[in-house]
Amino acid sequence: MDYHLLPRHQILCIDMRSFYASVECVKHGLNPMRDMLAVVGDKRRSGSIILAASPALKRKHGVKNVSRYFELPYDPDIYVVEAKMGDYVNVSIEITKLLYQYVPKEAIHPYSVDEMWITVDGLEKLYGGAYQMATMLQEELYETMGLHCAIGIGDNKFLAKVVMDLYAKKQGITACHYEDVERLLWPIPIEKVWGIGQRLTHHLNRMGILNLGQLAHFSLDRLKKRFGVIGEQLYWHAWGVDLSPVYDQFVKEEQKGFGHGITLLRDYSAEETRTCILDLTEEVCRRARTHQKAGRTIHLSIGYANNKGGFHRSRSIDLPTNMTMHMYHICLQLFHTFYDGHSPIRRVSVSLDNLYDDKETQLDLFDDQEKKKDLGYAMDAIREKYGSTAILRATSYTEAGITRERSKKIGGHYA
């Protein structure tokens, strides 16, 4: 591989270590590195997932972020707190504001609430090289917010991300340039590499590919034939090559569709599921109206309890819609047609796609759609001004309704 022909950038990949747990430790006057703290979704449910564990808790008891609340060992030194997503989002915003003091906005590319890439090309005269800047930002984040971070440095975003995952989380700061790929990355088992999940690992293992070095020396044609574009990307990543943009161009992509789903906290009957579908449909249509869009294809997905199957079906209609009751009745038709009639339900989602501009949709001469559309927009205006729960359908106040409870949450967890 002739790396001389490839662009070289100075990219930092910053990951806030045990972000949720660290934020909670700082809030409660604890040391994120020394004290044991677990962040759970809901302390009232023993089966609630542990969303984050402090490094000390992971080291002493082997607690993982996918563990359940009831699996926590009894230890009086363990602090258990409920997730407050609003706090984590606010801290993430403050971190971004801090970074704005050092780099332009387009140089920051957020990956998640606690992880981001930063391009630091051309800043050597101000702050020194990439390693010096990483050290400076690491110290600044700790001194101003009490938060620790790991930073990977690479010639592109892939190298910065993968070296952060594999090495910097233990070493603090680690760099990987093109010349380091063979030494640092090729011995790594493919299942530990960013972007390669369990299913893909299984397929690659069956092809005799166990580590990144073997992937790099596998036939590119065979990878493309087996996996398509993904196969080509895998091959070039194995050589440390990533040509994705390193500056955020703030390009607004066309909205492809609107969807909303929920994993229920208990088993729902068919009657309760109808209420849930109505609440979800209300939200999907509200979002469509907000974007002045209407859609012709309606999807309904139902998942049964205990992972015992379910179904995903869709139906296209002649005239685009963003009216709640119209979409709801289509969803009910799908539900009554494909539901097995007895299984308890734990997952429901609805979506609307095949979009058109709302102003371009035709009216039905035999149905006063204009008044129904005006009613929807009027309800949206009330919610926009007075809050998402200012006006609700009566079913939302029943035990099966989900809108009121979800309005208190961000990303499925309490704000």
From TrEMBL:
Listed PROSITE patterns: UMUC
Name of protein: DNA-damage repair protein
Domain of life, source organism: Bacteria
Protein's organism: Gracilibacillus halophilus YIM-C55.5
SUPFAM superfamilies named in the record: DNA/RNA polymerases, Lesion bypass DNA polymerase (Y-family), little finger domain
An example Gene Ontology CC term for this record: cytosol
Domain UmuC, chain residue ranges per copy: 11-197
Any one Gene Ontology molecular-function term assigned to this protein's record: DNA-directed DNA polymerase activity
Entries under Pfam families matching the protein: IMS, IMS_C, IMS_HHH_1
UniProt-listed GO biological process terms: DNA repair; error-prone translesion synthesis; SOS response
Phylogenetic classification of the source organism: Bacteria, Bacillati, Bacillota, Bacilli, Bacillales
Gene3D superfamilies in the record: 3.30.70.270, 3.40.1170.60, 5' to 3' exonuclease, C-terminal subdomain, DNA polymerase, Y-family, little finger domain
Family in the record: Belongs to the DNA polymerase type-Y family.
